[in-house]
Each structure stands twice: as C-alpha cells, then as structure tokens.
Design a protein that fits this description.
The complex is a heterodimer of chains A (182) and B (180). Chain A is an alpha/beta fold. Chain A is built from four helices and six strands; from the N terminus they run αββααββββα. Chain A has one domain: Double Stranded RNA Binding Domain. Chain A has a six-stranded mixed sheet, covered by helices on one side. Chain A is elongated and about 65 Å long. Chain B is 27% helix and 28% strand. Chain B has helices spanning 6-21, 63-79, 160-175; strands at residues 26-32, 43-46, 83-84, 92-105, 124-137, 143-152. Chain B starts with 5 loop residues before the first helix and ends in a 5-residue tail after the last helix. Classes of the chains: A alpha/beta (182), B alpha/beta (180).
Chain lengths: 182, 180
C-alpha cells in the first residue's frame, strides 16, 4: 500500500512541478506615447503567423476565449469598442505560439538527490505557450504597447477549462500593465 | 577526491568558478571580405526586415526592439561618416538578423564538489541571443563585412530597460570591430 501511495505522490508532484510553475507576464510600451487620448478600439486583421500548434490554429474556442478576455479587460480599463463604421483609436492584434522548451532537472549537488523526490536525470522537455497582444495606434499604424504571458501548457491544451482559466489569468495580468486612458 | 591536497582542491575550485563568472557569456566576432575598403562607400540604407522569426514571439515584429537596434547602428555608422539615404540608391545595404535559442551549459559537470561563489554549481539551460549585422555592397551584392554578438539573455526581454541596454551594448561591441 505504501509504495502505491508513494507512486501517486510522486506523480502528483511531477504534475505540479510543471503545471504550477508561475506564469511570466510582461510588456513593452512606447514611453513617448500619451495614452490619455485613446478611447476606442477594434480588432486588427487576423493573425497570419502560424501558432505553432494545430490545436490552436483549428480551434475557434481558443480564438473566442482570447477575444472575450481581451474585450472584458479593455472595458475594465475604460476603453470602448469603436462604432461599426467608425475609425478606432487603437487596433488590437494577438498572436499565440506553442513551443517546446528544455529544462534541466534540479539536482542538489551537495547531497546528491533531487528535492521533492522527483528526479528524472538530465534534460526534460515541456511545452510552453506564449500569448502576445499588440495595441496599435490606428492613425500612425505604430505599435504603442505589447504585452505577453508565458507559461507551461502541459495538461492544459486538451482541457478546455484549464485553457480558459490560463487565458483569463494571462490576459488579466498583462492588462494590469497597460496604461489606462484616464 | 577527499585525498586531494588542499591547494589542489582550491585550484580546482577556482577553475570551476571561472565559467560561472561569465554566466551570461558575451561572444563577439566579425568577418571582413577580402580586399574590402569601406572608405570608398558613402551612403547606406536598411534592407527590408527578413521574414524569419527570431525564435521568440516577444521579439518578432517588436517595433521597440527593431527601432532601438536600428537607431544604435545608425548612430555608429553616422559617427563613422556614413549617411543614410533612400533604399535602392545607396552604396551600402545594412541587414540585421536576430535569433534566440536555448543552450545547455554544462561547464561545471566535471567539478561536482567545487565551491562556486554564486552557489549556482550546476548545468543550466539558458536563452542565447545572437545579433548579426551584415553590410553589403548594393551594386555588386557582395557581403563586405559581418559582425555578430552572442550572449545569454536571462530576464532580458521581459524587462524593457534591460532589453534596450542589451541592444545598445551588443551594437556597440559589434561596431567596435567595424574596419573603419
């Protein structure tokens, strides 16, 4: 019985180790740009760059979730969607990518074991997702702000609930860094 | 290992510490074409950006990165007496290429008992960024000169100020090898 519990505990630890690594969020901004004049936004042209994963490219849910999350965050920051026949102040464009990343297992060289009893020796591979959101000044056609969130998507892509939550969290954390219009 | 004399162990420890001092190693190099005399050229223009991904979606089509880089190169070239002009009419064409890839640094594998100053005595994977600048004769399409820098980029892209400083530094190092 004890060995089964140990195995289950180790598997849980392994899952946690990758899935719980914190999401990294940051942004670049055009510091010379005054954001107080921006009021309205609309969606830019669809992303022509490959997502790196056919599951993202084919999934209308993924696109929908991201668009929904972005629209909610923009509204929360005081922006409005432009009128259908109007010219927006900002155009939004997003780009999502999945890439394989390498990681080297944490080994305590002094004592010769791995913390958490989860020691696969050597280099391991995991999948990392990056969501990049661009805000472009519709008049000058220049990028004025770019935000991104990056994190492991192990066990996330095939689980729509988890995917939705990661997207929401990533977009929310990103938009904390966006200068508000007022 | 326990039988080693203290002096030898200290020596090994010092040796092991050296690669770690340069934990973000910067490597600069350049190539100049045979019989190239850059003094015969006066004007330059930037080539259109290539369509290759940098390997990092945070940097692809990132205006802040691209403009910082181009401005740094413009400053250096103009200081050396070159003038920027319209594409299609210049003496020289300047290209840049940027690429990020993961690398495994295992320089410490051989010294498992060494005492590293930073405490980071283990093989690690880091993001290596390479920035390359090509200067081409527009008429003959000959590559006259190429300079490049490669360095570790941990935490550099996420921090805008650090990214800008890294770009400025990289361009300065590359252009220091420009034969003019």
């Amino acid at each position: 019985m004890r060995s089964t519990v140990t195995v289950v505990a180790m598997m849980a630890a392994a899952l946690l180790a990758t899935a719980c690594a914190p999401m990294r969020v940051s942004s670049h901004v055009d510091r010379a740009q005054d954001f107080s004049g921006y009021r309205t936004f609309d969606w830019g042209p669809a992303d022509a760059l490959p997502a790196g994963d056919p599951r993202l490219e084919r999934s209308p849910f993924f696109q929908d979730h991201i668009q929904g999350a972005i629209e909610r965050q923009m509204a929360a920051k005081g922006f409005e969607r432009a009128a259908v026949d109007g010219v927006p102040d900002l155009r939004i464009h997003f780009h999502a990518v999945i890439a394989s990343r390498l990681d080297v297992d944490e080994l305590d060289y002094q004592r010769g074991y791995c913390p958490g009893s989860d020691c696969r020796s050597g280099v391991s591979e995991y999948e990392e997702g990056t969501l990049v959101i661009d805000l472009i000044d519709a008049r000058t056609n220049r990028l004025v702000w770019r935000g991104w969130s990056q994190g492991s998507v192990e066990g996330v892509l095939d689980n729509e609930d988890r995917l939705v939550r990661k997207v929401e969290e990533g977009v929310r954390l990103m938009f904390v860094r966006l200068p508000s219009p007022r | 290992m326990k039988r080693l004399r203290l002096s030898l162990r200290l020596g090994l420890a010092t040796l092991a510490a050296i690669p770690l001092v340069s934990c973000a190693p910067v490597h600069v190099d350049s190539y100049v074409g045979r019989n190239v005399d850059l003094r015969q050229y006066r004007t330059y223009a930037w080539a259109a950006a290539d369509s290759f991904s940098t390997g990092d979606p945070r940097l692809d089509n990132n205006t802040f990165f691209i403009e910082r880089l181009q401005r740094a190169v413009d400053d250096e070239l103009q200081r050396k007496g070159f003038e920027v002009t319209t594409a299609g009419q210049s003496d020289l064409v300047v290209h840049y290429h940027a690429r990020i890839e993961q690398r495994l640094d295992s320089s410490d594998f051989q010294y498992p008992e060494s005492q590293c100053q930073s405490g980071e005595c283990r093989p690690f994977i880091y993001d290596a960024g390479t920035l390359l600048i090509d200067v081409v004769d527009r008429r003959s399409n000959q590559l006259l000169w190429r300079g490049w820098v490669e360095r570790g980029l941990e935490g550099t892209i996420d921090d805008q100020a650090r990214m800008e400083a890294a770009v400025d530094d990289a361009v300065k190092r590359i252009m220091a090898r420009f034969p003019l």
